[in-house]
Amino acid sequence: MNWLGLFVLLTVTGLAHGTWDTCGWTCGLRPMVSDSIPHDDSMTRVVGGADAKPGAWPWMVSIQHPWLPRLKHMCGGFLVSTEWVLTAAHCFNRVKEIGILNVVIGATQLTQPGPGAQVRKIKKLFRHEKYKRSDTSNDIALLELNEPVQCSPYIQLACVADPTIRVSELQNCWVAGWGLTSEEDEDSIDQLQEAKVQLIDLQLCNSSDWYGGLIHTHNLCAGYPEGGISTCKGDSGGPLMCQDNNADHWWVVGITVGGRGCARAKQPGVYTSTQHFYDWILAQMGLSPFGSAS
To answer: Which of 27, 40, 108, 220 could form a disulfide with 271 if both were Cys (CB 3.0 to 4.6 A apart)?
Structure first.
């Protein structure tokens, strides 16, 4: 376990209002799911994967707009502290009033969130100052919630990959979201979906017959060369998660920002590297950059 990285994350969780105790001083753990039992890979055959069990990814949030039809789901995100959610900047391109959005935490099924779910409003939106709509560079944003969430078996904090994590060596990686399950779909799905993916070498992902130089150095690619499994529209802002090679906890290594189509061959999902923006994340939350005195 990377204790230095974990210590920094513990600092993140507790700085604002002394809320360490509500999350048990931990991040990246899944109390409702045993990570010692291997997942059944045969269940993840299609875009969006298979139904996730309640509490499977307890840091997942659904960002919802009241004017959207049916499920209201707009984008995903994930808790990095009891008062902060990390997501994608492009989710808010067309949102003029941040205050009307709802952030639903602790739900797996959107139409029946269950007693463990909590709803918060957004106090403030922090989009990266160098974010560009034209090429989705620096596509990362932080949401400050109007009040802290209370952690439970269904609500836990994500561990953000710090600069010491060797992301390329992580093997067991998953994505989750309420987005479309195929390019032909028109609405988000009610039940949270999960799918196992592979990290794809950035040079290969950026090669001429893949993305042809469109991928930035601060991006990650994940999916499969042959396609078939990937994130899709509505999954934006959600996490790309990899289990630590030496422990049960999970690292969020990426933020879903897009891809060409959904699950096409040689067009895997594209993610913003959380590790690349680690110091930016801390700075927005009022914390010292990694490696500095706190």
So the answer is: 220
Give the catalytic positions in this structure. 90, 139, 236
* Burial (CB count within 10 angstroms: exposed 0-12, middle 13-18, buried 19+), residue 103: buried
CA 203: distance to chain centroid? 23
∠ CA 108-12-128, nearest 5°, is 80
**pLDDT tens digits for 199-256?**
999 999 999 999 999 999 999 999 998 887 778 877 899 999 999 999 889 999 999 9
- In the numeric block, which tokens belong to residue 280? 């930016």
- Taking the whole predicted model, whether its pTM rises above 0.85 is answered as yes
Q: With a cut of 60, say whether residue 39 has pLDDT above it.
A: no
* Tokens found for residue 152: 């439970």
HEC string of the chain equals: CCHHHHHHHHHHHHCCCCCHHHHCCCCCCCCCCCCCCCCCHHHCCCCCCEECCCCCCCCEEEEECCCCCCCCEEEEEEEEECCEEEECHHHHCCCCCHHHCEEEECCCECCCCCCCCEEECEEEEEECCCCECCCCECCCEEEEECCCCCCECCECCCEECCCCCCHHHCCCEEEEECCCCCCCCCCCCCECEEEEEEEECHHHHCCCCCCCCCCCCCEEEEECCCCCCCCCCCCCCCEEEEECCCCCCEEEEEEEEECCCCCECCECEEEEECCCCHHHHHHHCCCCCCCCCC
C-alpha to C-alpha distance for 26 and 20, rounded to whole angstroms: 8
Residue 195 CA from chain centroid, whole number: 13
The token duo for 217 is 């150095």
Find all residues with CB under 8 Å of 13, minimum gap 6, and list them: 19, 20, 23, 25, 27, 81, 82, 157
